[in-house]
Structure formats: C-alpha cells, structure tokens
Amino acid sequence: MRRPLFLVLPWFLGGVWLESRARLLASLYQSSLPVAVVPWAAVGAAAVLAGSWAALHRAGRQRTATCVICGLALLLGLQRDAVSRYLPPNHLAHLIENAVVTVEGHLYRPCDVRRSRSYASKHPNTYLYVAVQWLELDGMRYRVQGKIRITLLGSDLLREERKTFRYGDVIRTRLRLKRPRNLPDFDYREYLRRRGIYFIGSLKHDRYIVKLPERRGNPWLARLYAVRRKILRFFARYAAGHPEAAPTLQVLQAMTLGTGRQLPAELLDRFRNAGLYHLLVVSGIHVGIVAAALHAVLRYGGVPARYRLWVVMPVLLIFAGFCGFQLPVLRAVIMACVLYAGVVLHRMADGLYSLAFSAAVLVWLWPGALFEASFQMTMMATASILMSYGCWSRSAWGGTILRWPAILRIPVTGVLMSGSALLGIAPLMLSYFQQVSPYSIISTLAAMPIMLALLPAALLLEACALILPWNWLWPGLAAAVALGDALVALAGVFPPVLLTVRQLRPEVVWLYYAGLFGGLALIRRRQKLAGPKREE
Amino acid sequence: MVPWTGLSPKQQIVCVTACCFGVLWLCGTAWQAVRSPLVAVSLASSVPETVTVLIDPPVDVNRAGYEELQLLPAIGPVMAERILRYRRQHGPFASVDELARIHGIGPKTVQKLSYYLKFDD
Known about the structure:
The complex is a heterodimer.
Chain A: H1 4-22, H2 24-29, H3 37-58, H4 62-85, E1 98-107, E2 112-114, E3 125-137, E4 140-143, E5 147-152, E6 169-178, H5 188-193, E7 197-203, E8 209-215, H6 219-241, H7 246-257, H8 265-273, H9 284-300, H10 305-322, H11 327-344, H12 351-365, H13 373-392, H14 396-403, H15 406-432, E9 435-436, H16 440-465, H17 470-493, E10 499-500, H18 506-535
Parallel strand pairs in A: 5-7
Antiparallel strand pairs in A: 1-3, 1-6, 2-3, 3-4, 3-5, 6-8, 9-10
Chain B: H1 9-34, E1 39-42, H2 48-55, E2 59-60, H3 66-69, H4 77-90, H5 107-113, E3 117-118
Parallel strand pairs in B: 2-3
C-alpha cells in the first residue's frame, strides 16, 4: 500500500466522531473514578495494542498487524476528542452558571467586528475573545482558565474616540456571564464549545472595560496582527477619501483578509443569491495565487529549488495568519506546503494525499473542526475537484480539452471544476442551509475573469502597502476598486432566486458521498486498468 | 484483483510510532489538566494593599492624562475631560470623595472608582 494515511485517517476521524457522539472516554473523565486514572488507562490500552502489533509484526502477519494499527488510530481519535472536552478543575465552567462576575484576561485573538442582519444597522457589534486568567466572585479571587466572548453592543472600533482592543491586551471588566442560548435549528452552544468558549457576555460601552498596562499572548502573533492592522488602515485611509468605494473595499478585504463577516447584510445577500458567496471566503484559489506568484519570483531570482520551500512555506503560513487562521485557508496552506515540498524535493506530490494530510493535521489540532460546516465544505469541494479531475483528465474527451488553446481550455476547465466543487458541496449546503443558488456555475464562470485580475492585484497592493508610501498606490487601488465594482455589479445582475429544500438527513448525505466518491474511484480504477490494455 | 497485503513493515512502524506518540502526548496534556488546582484568594483580606494590587494597578488621578483616565471604568472621553478641567481649576484631588463634586460622577461611580485610584502627594 503506497499511502498509509488513506487507511489510518478514516479510523482516526471515526474515533473523533464516535467520541463526540457516544462520549465513551469523556464519561470516564466525569465518572467517580479518580480522574488521573483515565489518562493512564488510555496509555495502557495503547501499550496493549502496540504490544499486539509488535507480536503480529514479528510473526509476519502483516494484514492483522495493519488492523491493530487501525485500532490504535481509533483509540487516538477517541482520546483526542475526549481531551478536548475535558474541563480541568480550575475551569470557569465549574464556578459559574449565570452570574455577574469580574474577569481579567487577555485577548487571545483579534477583535471580530460583525454587522447585525438588520440592513438599517449602522454600528456593528464587536466581539472580544478573552482567555480568562482571574475571576472574582462572592468576595473571592480565583485563578482560572477558560475562554469567554464579550460582545460590545453597537460599537465601532474604527471610531477614534473608542478604546482600541488588540491581540494580547489584558483587560478587566465586570459583566454577567451566561451560557450561550441555542437557536431553534442550530446548536449554538456546541458551536462555541468547539472554539473553547463556554460563556458569553455583553457590554453596552467599552468604558466598562479597563485595559491593564501589560500584554500577554504570542509576540510573533502580535507582530503578525500588527501588520494586518496596517493593511486594514491602508484600506480605511483610502475609504476616508472615497466614501463611495467603501463597500467595494470591504469586498476586497473579505477576499484577501477574511473579513467577510463585517460585510453589510445587503451585500452578503447579493453574493449569496448570485451563488458567488464562496468568492468572499479566502480559500484554495487565493493560496494558489500567492504560492504561484512567490514561486515565479524566486525562480526568476535564481533561488535554488530546495531553498524556495523555506520561503514559500513561512509566507503561506503568514498569509493564513492574515486571514485569521480560518479553516479553509489553513487547509489550502497545508495542502500547498505538502504539494510544493513534494514537487521541490522530488517526492510524491499527490493532491488527494496532501488533502488527507491537511485533514489529519487540522482535526488533530482542533477536533471540533470535523463538525464545522466550513471544514466539511472545503474538504468535500477539494476532494470532489481532485477526484473528478483525475477521472476526466484521463478520459478521451478530457485529453482533447486539455490540448485546446488556453483561451478555450481555461473557461471549460473552470466550468468543469466549478461543477465538481458544486457536486462536492451541494448536499452539505442543502443540509446546513437548505438553500442553493441556481446560478452558481454560470455566475462563477462569469466572475472568473474579474477574479483572475482582481485577486492578484489586491494581494500585490497589500504587499506593497507594507513597504511603499501609500499615496503611490492610490491609482492601483482605484483600478482594483473598479474591478471590485464590476464584481459587485455582476452579483447584482442575478435575480434573487434561491432553491429552498427540506433539510437533508445525515444518512442521505453519507449515501450521497459514498456514491459520489465510490463512483469516481471506480471510474479511476477502470481507467488505470484500461490504460495498459490500450497501450498494448 | 490485487489482494490486500496491508501496510508495509516500514509504514507500520511509522504509523505505530506516530499513534503511540500521539496517545502519550494527549495523556500528558490530560494529566497536566487534571492536576490544575483551583487557587483562590479572599478579596476581603486583612491586607488591603495586597488586594489593591491584585485587583488592578491603580491610576494616580492627579497625574493621569486624558488617555489614562479613560482606562478607568465609567470614565469616557467627556468625563475624562471634566476631571482634567476640575484638576486645572481646583488643584490636585485629596481623596476619592472629591471626585463626587464633578458633574456626572455620583456616589456609585465614586465607589467603583475607589478600587482603581491612588492619590500620591
């Protein structure tokens, strides 16, 4: 077997899934057993499995030994999810349920400015994500751990008279903390729990928050976010002189810095109706452009292939940081790094294998990611594109398309890839949102020429904004805004028709994917078997 | 049809090592979490200085500028400006109660501020 990850990964993911549903180990952690017993019991189970594997391996029973490895991967998945759910004795959740408390902690990620769904809402809410270190309750001051989210209602951080909150700032405030409320059709509490947030609170004004004169957090991340703020200031400076360009600039920021949630609801709905919402999410295409541009520059500069890797990988990671380490970006960055390393070091460079590797890394780091819509959609869309491409590019008609001149090949390939991506995400969209745009393929194809010019231009401008005087860049930004206006206008061309369906049951979604990927794998296998015969 | 032979010995060793290392790392993480004690300090301590330090680094209201005053709870730009104006007109504050003479600062705000202020000579 050439690719062990394809065998081990499903067992690991299965373990995470099983633990999240059945809470096998989590219930042991919460049982009357001494809690320290459970981690050592897991080590014992792993030791037994490893010992069994060693015996089978020595006896030459490789197939049975491989099955034991699958069991070990399952145990790893179970343990990973259980550990992520375990709350230590000094966690906030053991002290409060719904209480007015004083908390002190640092902002562990940059503030998130989100607009409400109301079109008339002028001032967006600001979300502060706080890793709490101290909690004061009933005359006692507790050293605790745990994350909370504070909503500054109707605030706008761009207004100068307000306090600014940055990553690493240590704050102190008094507010009512309560568990998040679930929505009728959405488990919001679980959604926040996956991010480690167990309590939320809100404040009407930032004057109730005291900024303490100290900083915590990672200094490298602080520098990264400072650079990101500089780019945002670059856009804000231009918007101050050209208020009419502000919505388009927000679209540019969403496409390059992952600030899509700050967009006004009207604009978001326009893109959603046109089936162009995915353009506002930083994903593989963005990472691909950055990687390709870097590769070209380094190659032109005469940098040897193996050293290029050490430039491309950190830059891509920094780019992921600019976008707030969102799951689709991280997926694309990990995939790009693995693929690029494979190509540069003359090792195996397989898209599907790098996708599996990125899934393993992301679920290992954040087990809850497995249940996130964004993670599932980005994985399924990419898998569908890669597997479909593997099939049609080796067929007779696919080979003909690939030999066409670029002016014909690129749009046709674009349609095929958009169609493949839609095949991959359609059941998830129907399952999560019960809506799908009928124009998705056409609108994506129409937007492609604009995107191909707009994205590199916007990314280049942002890179230049870090080193060049900003007034040199205004003409370039004006051109990018004109392209962005064209994109916004294109999104407005399509009448607001969304196909609304009933929510798909999970079994149907599983069956669909089994059919889709099983069918594609079968076609691919037949092509491989037919290949040698054709040559004969 | 090629029979399934399982992973090669080298791949098996890599997978087993990775899984065992992963389980051990997770157990270490869980062990560390389990042993995180809940430490508490009484706010009604008999040593007020200690408590003050624990609550917040105090702000010297007679030296603080416009920005620093706004770090205090219930003090925004307008109140900060009023405090500065009062200080210019009447000299330094002798005690926290003197703040109550400023328009917009009531007894509740004074009580809230008392934890965060110091009055150096």
